[in-house]
């Protein structure tokens, strides 16, 4: 793989629809998963949250390599995630849940 200097090693896509209470924990846990030499970007695929999730993600944009892709949710969860993956800059894309039900993130 011929990676550009500003290109992340992997893109993490997460769809935390109306999961405002999880956004801070999620966006702080994901970067801790990176091994030495691995850079991550996080794309939040929001399908139309009405609980302040998007606003919280926007705050994180200044703290971490986070990008918010807002959708109206008309295509459902899968459509929102697919839309977000089109914005990935890395060759490797990983999708994780937005509600922290994948316990590995929480335990790190």
What does this structure look like?
- The protein is α/β, with parallel strands linked by helices and 108 residues long.
- Helices cover 32% and strands 19% of the residues.
- The chain has four helices and four strands.
- Strands 3-2-1-4 form a four-stranded parallel beta sheet, sandwiched between helices.
- Helix 2 (53-60) links the parallel strand 2 and strand 3.
- Helix 1 (20-32) packs parallel to helix 2.
- The longest helix is centred in the first third of the chain and has 13 residues, at 20-32.
- The radius of gyration is 13 Å and the shape is globular.
- It starts with 9 loop residues before the first strand and ends with a helix.
- The mean pLDDT is 83.
Distance between the termini: 28 Å
* Shape verdict: globular
Radius of gyration, rounded? 13 Å
The sequence of SSEs as H and E is: EHEHEHEH
What would the average pLDDT be, to the nearest integer? 83
Order the strands across the largest sheet as they lie in space: 3-2-1-4
Amount of helix: 25-40%
- The helix tally amounts to 4
Q: What would you call the structural class?
A: alpha/beta
Uncertain runs with pLDDT below 50, 5 residues or more? none
Describe the structure using short key phrases.
alpha/beta, 108 residues, globular, 32% helix, 19% strand, single chain
Q: What's the structural blueprint in terms of helices and strands?
A:
Blueprint: E1 10-14, H1 20-32, E2 40-46, H2 53-60, E3 66-70, H3 76-85, E4 92-95, H4 103-106
Parallel strand pairs: 1-2, 1-4, 2-3
Provide a short characterization of the protein structure.
By secondary structure, this protein is of the alpha/beta class. It is built from 4 helices and 4 strands.
């Amino acid at each position: 793989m011929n990676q550009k200097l500003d290109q992340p090693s992997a893109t993490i896509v997460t769809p935390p629809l109306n999961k405002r209470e999880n956004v801070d924990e999620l966006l702080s846990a994901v970067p801790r998963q990176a091994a030495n030499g691995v850079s991550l970007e996080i794309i939040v695929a929001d399908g139309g949250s009405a609980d302040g999730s998007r606003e919280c993600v926007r705050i994180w944009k200044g703290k971490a390599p986070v990008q918010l892709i807002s959708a109206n949710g008309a295509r459902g969860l899968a459509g929102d995630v697919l839309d977000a993956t089109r914005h990935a800059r890395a060759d490797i894309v990983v999708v994780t849940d937005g509600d922290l039900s994948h316990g590995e993130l929480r335990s790190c």
